[in-house]
Amino acid sequence: MTYCIGIKLKSGLLALSDTRITSGTETTTAEKYKIYQKGNQNIFLMTSGLRSVRDKTLTYFSEVLNEKLDEFEKLYQVVNALGEQIKRVAHEDKASLAESGLNFNINTIVGGQLQGDKEHKLYLLYPQGNWIEIGNGSPFTIIGNSGYGTPVLRRTVNYESSIRFALKTSFLSFDSTRVSSNDVGYPIDVLVYLKDSHEIKVKRFFENDLSPISTLWGKKLTKAVNEVPEDWMNCILDEDK
Fold this sequence. Notes:
Layout: E1 3-9, E2 12-18, E3 20-23, E4 26-29, E5 33-38, E6 41-49, H1 51-68, H2 75-99, E7 106-113, E8 121-125, E9 131-133, E10 140-144, H3 150-156, H4 163-180, E11 188-194, E12 200-205, H5 207-227, H6 234-237
Antiparallel strand pairs: 1-2, 1-10, 2-11, 3-4, 5-6, 6-7, 7-8, 8-9, 11-12
Helix pairs in contact: 1-2, 3-4
């Protein structure tokens, strides 16, 4: 499984991905993001799903970008090109995967800014090759194991949030997923694109870097639960009645 999140904020883009790859009893780590930069053209993407589908799609897509990146003026055009390569791989491999009992599965987050874009953009692509743009009203999207980490984001992050706040909350979202699922884990890769900076920064964090934050978060959660009022329980738990 995978945990990848992309957030579009007024101040820029934030992305975070885990690196755990599980195959049978084997567990390894690998980057789940890809960056393409040339001049003022800045693109990152993150994927979840079948590794074979991902690798083949990105091989084809990289060839397209190497030949045509200068021809793309807006990020949605790049997203369309990636969608076409997803459809190409589906045409080649979907039937044989189905015969083996595997679903054709790849979900992709694409973010960045091209020379024709007025602002930074964030998109989510589905296995069918179609896509949606992540807007200001609901500024984040998660691919992979999304159930455990979504609540903390929905309660806290909005378009006006700072990148610093969004990164802190994204880590807590990842941490909630990590402790609930053994197929998501360290290290994590963080990508930051500041508004109009034309630069994507990347940093990898290991468990030793962040375990104190995880421990602190666990203690604060326990304290907060203990502080929740209990009067509403009296009607069913009051032994005197």
